[in-house]
Amino acid sequence: MRRPSLLLTAVTGLAFGLVGCGDMSSVSAPSTTPPPILYSGQPSEALLQKMRVAPTAVAYSGVRRVEQSWQVGVTVYSTSYREEVSSDGQGRVALQGLELIAPTLPPRREELWHMLQESRDGFLFRYRDFRIHDVAQMCVNYSPIATGVRTRVAGRECEELVFALRHGAAFTYNLAVDRESGLVMRCEQVATDGHVMGKVEFESLELNPQFAPDFPWDESSNQEQPLPESRSLRVAALGFRPRLPEGDGGRFLLVESTIVRSPEPDGGGEIPWAKSTLTDGIEVVFVLHGGDDSSLLSEDVMRVAPSVGPWNHVEGTLAGERFMALGRASADELLDLIASTLK
Amino acid sequence: MKPQAHFDCNAFRVAALDRAALSEHACAECERWVGRLALREGLLRTLPRMVAPSELEGLSEREFQSEGRRARAVRALESLARVEAGDEFDRAVEALASGTGPQFSARAPSVLERLVAEDLANPVKARVARQFEGLPRLVAPMVLEQRVARELAKPRAERKLATRAWLSVAAAAIALLSLAPQAFERRGAPSDLQSARGARPFRVERLESTRDLSPSARAWFETVSSGLLEQNNI
Questions:
Q1: Is the pLDDT of residue B114 over 50?
Q2: Which of A179, A274, A302, B93 is the Cys-Cys partner for A316 at CB 3.0 to 4.6 Å?
């Protein structure tokens, strides 16, 4: 759920005041004509707003090459594939794996990869790629820099931007952004040691394409429901009082809370979870609270999974209740978000 | 296919199921078979988990309870066919009843009776005693014996003073521990073993291998990584 608009305005003002992005005391809707982008050290607000909505507000179809070079334990694993990404500009999107370039798999396993990739398309579209989810919060946490370099990617004239976290160690994003549409045409995710962990780049792009009536748009399948405002309705819907993380004052801002359900580990039914979605403006993390956990010991313990590339996952039991947090943030930050639910 | 080759293929496929000796056998057909095996395994993993009927759990539980076991035993006994005793057995029983047959010892050895009585009186004590009675007794080191001897040789007042000093130190330590538990908890957390986060401290366990991931964590990583774990068998 969104915060009150007064608070948002205050945060917005503070954010832009901090980064000195010019006259950005109020967040305006993206204009239809692109503003002139000159080298000023920082991207214009109009471009940032355009980038925020472009993935779903622009009608386009294109082929992208995705490369990942992720460390798991002491080993670095590389994956590379091509995919087709489409949007009708009205909120419908589609992501389809076209070709697995590396690693080389036997034909049947590659078929299986295509099937599984199809089931992941909605999540990957929303959370894998670089995306500005909240401009004000992004300006609080990141230093966006326009390098002044212009480049062409898939025939589109692009502005090079760099996004680095203001405080703490995290990734740096090197972007090439289409000046006209605001689409991120190329994105490199660079680790603190300079290692390029991921790269997503358009090889071709068509704006305003004609889509067939039976085009396979992504359909959400996790059946999330909004968490009711009323405490009694929340308890009635979940069976327990949900604990939500406090994002105030920290890197992450609570965006919405929903109810999701997962199968019981023993397959005997479903566990309802209160799912909180938070963002620092770019990265998104999820904190889930699953109520009483009678199947485990009552000891307060959280288990931190080994990082898989930039992603982390923690889960465990606190005060006899299930908790889980996951996202492209450090395990310590995920643990802090869970701890904040108990304050 | 030659009979010998067929035998080799079968042996190889049994070994392949056990994930052993895969490289010792090179046969194109078997390689295809292993490929199909991996595919089938992957497809099986994607199948939805079948849920047993809810009443099955209750029935299973009742069956394993003592009442259920007794009822099951009665049912099993009732289902047995009656076995007729032979003539020889009948004659032996009749002889015993009339006191004309051979005499049997009807008493258990006294040691057995004593052990059973101990077990019934205090089962835990009896078990512990039985476990420890066979262990060899250790002798204290000579150095320790000499220190005790020196201590006992001191005048009584001096010994008392030393004891008081130790008691004071112990009391101070206990007071410190009870007054500032939080401070000790935080100082004692140089690593992630004990973490004092927010209002409720909790322990943090860091898993070393992706093999230890929970099903939910594995599913999450598979999604965000486009199947990296499965592709690389990690």
A1: yes
A2: A302
